[in-house]
Amino acid sequence: MSQYSDSKLKLFALNSNSKLAAEIAEVIGLKLGKSSVARFSDGEIQINIEESIRGCDVYVVQSTSAPVNEHIMELLIMIDALKRASARTINIVMPYYGYARQDRKARSREPITAKLVANLLETAGATRVITLDLHAPQIQGFFDIPIDHLMGVPILADYFEGKQLSDIVIVSPDHGGVTRARKMADRLKAPIAIIDKRRPRPNVAEVMNIVGNIEGKTAILIDDIIDTAGTITLAANALVENGAKEVYACCTHPVLSGPAMERIQNSKIKELVVTNTIALNEEQKSEKVTELSVAPLIGEAIIRVHELKSVSTLFD
What positions does UniProt annotate as the active site of this protein (predicted)? Predict the structure, then answer.
């Protein structure tokens, strides 16, 4: 591994995704910073930073994935520790931003928890956030500090381009994901289709009809998050029933909670392609699931931020 030359750049990992953090460190050419996370007997978190970071630009890798609240508290306490140890800048690398689906008041008396999390990070002392595929892009506006919003579509598109599938159509599982599907379709020079669905009650999706031509084609479903996999598996089954030749699915953030894996195994999905923004546990690993690494993208973004270069050119 070639060594990154600036000793003022420090990279630390917390517990949510230490494997990804190690990959990012390798991409940059750094050793991970020395720190430890311990628990008191009542569950309180204690963090020790075991090297000097005075005057350094520190990057902390932490996805706020399950257990979400544990990982958010770890991160907030780490930020406070870094601030009190005189770090020059505290940059949060959050591949998956938890609570992003609570981004607006859909009903009376609902919280906007995505904004609350942004406030907590800023109040703790974060000076920048680097994240991937926010569920709602407007969450960037919840912050008063710089936020670099990276995209997973190029990584997913490159993988499917390499498979050289013929006669493909990119499918959005709902109206909200059309922009994402269009970005993928532009990269793969393919048409798009949309699943028009109605949801009779929360967590129950009901497919209504398919807008676009999918007859005899290889369909690639794309979403940002797959959680319980109800929407994506229902969509895949509907595509096959309506004449699609075969169905692939992909997403940036594999939350895969509850019955997700069972649903995917029993669905018409031939292959589910995900990134490693969230670490997969043993139950979530399967011959149907392909995991791609976002480490090269995040590593390059960190170097560009640190060297005051443009990050947007990563998507040209």
Answer: 197
pLDDT for residue 186 is more than 90: yes
Instruction: Give residue 88's pLDDT.
Output: 98
Please give the pLDDT value at position 199.
Answer: 64
pLDDT reading at 309 higher than 80: yes
Write down the H helix ranges in the chain.
Answer: 18-28, 68-84, 113-124, 153-163, 178-188, 230-241, 260-265, 295-306
Please, which residues have CB within 8 angstroms of residue 217's CB and are 6 or more apart in sequence? 167, 168, 169, 244, 245
Q: Is 44 annotated as a binding-site member?
A: yes
- The residue count of the chain comes to 316
Q: Which residue has the higher pLDDT, 206 or 207?
A: 206
Known binding residue 231? Answer is: yes
Compute the 3-state secondary structure of the chain and give helix, strand, coil in percent, each to the nearest 5. Answer: 35, 30, 40
DSSP 45: E
Q: In this structure, are residues 255 and 225 in contact, taking their beta carbons and an 8 Å threshold?
A: yes
- Residue 306 neighbours by CB distance under 10 Å: 17
User: Would the annotation count 230 as a binding residue?
Assistant: yes
Rounded to two decimals, the pTM is 0.94
In angstroms, rounded to a whole number, what is the distance separating the alpha carbons of residues 142 and 64?
17
